[in-house]
Design a protein that fits this description.
Distance between the termini: 40 Å
Strand content: over 45%
Structural class: mainly beta
Radius of gyration: 13 Å
Largest sheet: 7 strands, mixed
Number of helices: 0
Length: about 120
């Protein structure tokens, strides 16, 4: 079972930026689709951005033009660059890996708080 560890969350002022990272424990990362999800208090978990093994990306409408997802297969690492953050981006952000077999794994989450 692959393990995922997120980092990079924290407190940031509105308009600020953060970069999240997610490191996978296994080299199967390179052939997997990986994604960022988030869950705000009282809300359901939602997809933020994903990237396939071939590099195709997908974004939620709410983050298009502000967030950028990328991957470094040599480092088994997924990134989420978040710019122009606002209070609605406050949530716990989770990394998810979907294997070629269709199984999935989640990280433990990292808190992002946007507040002045």
């Amino acid at each position: 079972q692959v393990q995922l560890v997120e980092s990079g969350g924290g407190l940031v002022q509105p308009g600020g930026s953060l970069r999240l990272s997610c490191v996978a424990s296994r080299s199967a990362f390179a052939i997997s689709t990986v994604a960022w999800y988030r869950q705000a208090p009282g809300k359901e978990r939602e997809l933020v951005a994903s990237v396939t093994s071939g590099g195709s990306t997908n974004y939620a409408d709410s983050v298009k033009g502000r967030f950028s997802v990328s991957r470094d297969n040599a480092k088994n690492t997924l990134y989420l660059q978040m710019n122009s953050l606002n209070s609605e981006d406050t949530a716990v952000y989770y990394c998810k890996l979907i294997s070629v077999l269709g199984t999935s794994a989640w990280g433990q989450g990292t808190q992002v708080t946007v507040s002045s």
